Amino acid sequence: MDVPLAIACRKINKRYPHFSLSDVDLSVEEGTVMGLVGPNGAGKSTILRMVMGLIGPDSGSVTVLGHRMPDEQMAAKRDIGFVAEDMRLYESQSIAFHMDFVKSIFDSWDDTYAANLLRSFDLKKEQKVKGLSHGQRVKATLLLALARRPKLLVFDEPTTGLDPAVRKEVIDEMMNALESESHSILFSSHNTLDVEQISDYITFIYGGRIIESCNKEDFMDGWRRIRLSNPDGKPLPMLKNIKEMQQHGRLCSLTVDQYDEGVAEHLRQSGLKVDAVERLTLEEIFLSNVHHAKANLSKEAGL
Amino acid sequence: MSTSIIPQLLKKDFMLSRRMILVFCLVSLLGVVAIALLFGRVPDWALINVGFLLLMSPAATCGIVLLMTTVVFEKEKSTQAFIMSLPVTPRHYALSKLLINVGVFGVFWLAISAIAFYFAFGRGLFPSGTMPFVIMVLLGAFVAYIGILSVSLWRQSLGLTVLSIALFEMGTSAYLWVVAFLDPVADFIYGPEPVWNSTAVGIVSAQVLVAVGLIAMTLLYQSRRRDFL
Amino acid sequence: MKYGFVFSKTDKRPMYQQIMEQIVQRIAVGDWPPNTPLPSVRELAADIKVSIITVKRAYLELGRDGVITTQQGKGTWVSESLDMKRLQREELAEHLAHAAKLADSLGISEAELLQMLKKYV
After folding, report:
1. Residues 5 through 64 of chain C touching chain A, CB cutoff 8 Å
2. Which CATH number fits domain C15-78: 2.40.30.110, 3.30.2000.10, 1.10.10.10, 1.10.3720.10?
3. What is the pLDDT of residues B122-153, one digit of tens each?
């Protein structure tokens, strides 16, 4: 079963003076939500800009909605709505000015939807951009992207810096946009709760490399924290899916991925007592991944 | 091939700048009125100097300010990211900026040239022999403007643009002084008839070629650009 | 919120299980009698603002348990011959199995376990 891909990045490489993307593979199936998670400077913004055709890779290919980027960016951008943290509107102009401007460019602009969004977002179109708060600006920029009903939404940190109420409004409208089967979302976020809630797929990026990319449910299912007691001081089996280990006296805590019942059994058979097996939140998984990736990088660097 | 959005970009930039353009039009008008009133009432050399200033300053200032707001500040204020998220390529973006800036400045420049010609030769302020040189001066201003615009589109950096303004200004003045004293030109400047010898033709042609060349280079550079941000 | 699902952010269980519970509750209470059509995965996901894959999982698990029935092209509905009591019994059996395992790993004897159970009956 081959679901068409809204986005297909293959073996992307890009070198900057202080940073590089290495061998990045990223695919987003049509009709799904992909959440891109990673610390600052990991390369999320760079990837998103490549998807938009604003940056060209040194090697590898970027295909968005069937168009090669950045060569066919004009055709692709007709169907993409982009919102980024460092994007600004014209301060001296009103929201209406921007709406008219975008409407004059896109046939797909939906006046009714735009009016609904103004209402949901509690914005008045006569308001000038310079008088808007940060949250209102983000919502205005979002409105301009959503009202044209693009097939793909690409959002760089859409909820960063927003208060909980505005954050909810933004997430709600993002999800509303997905009612159509052919619409997809790629977004990057620090906010692991948002990513956990709405993503179908999650991609972890660290230091310019993709650490993991998979189905959210399978992913969350696979990680566990196992709390053990080791009263007889038995040695711990070196299972390869142990991502983190903490030991204090006779107590031990393991963070593992690709968990299944066999892991707990194996530990029991090694003479350890399993006190608890807990699921992890995405934030905990994220931290564990970063920790592990950092440790790996240090090992590679021979430190 | 998708339709370009250059008309919408031009309309947008014009809407954003129209008040400023209007102000400069009014100032220029006042300048022209002042020249007309002063004509005959002040010594010719004074009128020439003041006239030149009154005509060129508003036009040059308007051109520079427009260039700054449409090109440099759009990057500094990050509105460029918003525009680039729309269906537009770097080449079309640059083309729209060239069109509006050269368009607005061009209108001012043509008006100034016409007015200058009227007062200089229509009303006999200069001997006709000066015509080639006057044309060189006017073209010099135009080439300088294109040069500054090209630099600003190349890097959209405030510092670099300001530097290029200074360099082109000094460069153009220096160049015109040199030209004025070149024998093939100087010999005929005060004459009663315009003399288009090979030097004069050569210089004017070179100016036109440089202007066209700069525009072509700018567009070529933007078409090949793979990293916009 | 068209379907009125209520989720707790402090509930440690995964979201798909919470969704399953909400659906089962509606069936048990009688709000969704047998043969009631369920919203499409996409519709429900957009309504409760949760990823489609999570809703898909919930539907999948409920389908496996026989609580709901899905047919290609026809959609999903509450199973006709639904034996709520049987399902709840099965759920109880699962809990008891889990308790037994835990007791075993804690070294609690069968007698002690029964004693503990008596306290809660």
Report:
1. 12, 14-16, 42-43, 45-46, 49-54, 57
2. 1.10.10.10
3. 887 788 888 888 898 899 999 999 999 999 99
